[in-house]
Amino acid sequence: MKRTFLCLSLLSALALPVVAKEDKPPVEVVSTEVAPGIHMLSGVNGFIGGNIGLLTGDDATIMIDDSMPPFLDKLRQSVAAVAGKHVDFLINTHVHGDHTGNNTAYGEDKTHIVAHENLRHHMVTKGVQGPEGMVPAPEAALPVLTFSDQMTFHFNGQPATVFHVPKAHTDGDAVIHFSEANVIHTGDTFFNGLFPFIDLDSGGSVDGYIHAQLKIISMSNDETKIIPGHGPLASKADLQKAVDMLIESKKLIQKAIDDGQDLDSILKANPLQKYHDDWNWGFISTDRMTTQLFNDLSHSNAHQAGDGHQH
Prior knowledge:
This protein has helices spanning 10-15, 72-83, 97-100, 103-108, 117-126, 206-218, 236-258, 263-269, 273-279, 286-310; strands at 28-35, 38-44, 52-55, 62-64, 89-91, 112-116, 128-130, 133-135, 145-147, 150-153, 160-165, 173-178, 183-185, 225-227. Helix 6 links the parallel strand 13 (183-185) and strand 14. The chain contains 10 helices and 14 strands.
């Protein structure tokens, strides 16, 4: 059941409005309080985009990611029910449209958008995802506050440090750590219970993804509440399970490459079969997980070989 809400592929989600079938209940945005003043907003009955974080209080309202245009009204209703006021700051965890799809609407509403500098650069140089492909980014969609390493918000008695994890899901990922509340929003550096999407074309990498997850684990304890980019609210144990799977999967594909197998041979042998039942889903199938690992590791091996030859 955990996959049915996500099996409208992320690729479709970046480009197309999601239309619910008439015989199904409407998709809703629901809120779960994970710590005093900190909520996770997620979709019920369908896919609304990535999990959204919300910090509320007298000082300011801070939102993490902002879903997709078809769900703007429902997102605003859910935020209003929890916060009762204007969103002051919007943090983008990365550039994908299921996390930044309503930037324009919030930017026009005078919400200050915050992101890693690489995300703004991506939007300025490559545009944003529209219904029919990439289009120039509207000025209102662009982050107006950017950082290179980290920055900290001090509102509502809940300090929130936003820090960059390099070359992980993309080259512009941000993770948000509410240190007093012991809550972490990972963006898409964590898909809870699902094979992760590692966007190699946007600067992501397998090693960077693993390092990001290990860093988050190092900041966690058994009481930490972890809001993943996709999937249910998680614990340190859930994240440990995910990184263990990824490290082992990397080893399996690397061994196949070292044995001289090409991608077709590896797909046929299916070295990740043991993970299929628990981790496979509509967007990142076992075959696609194998392929993205192969593509990244093959490129890394070739690059290392080239460096070795030069020296």
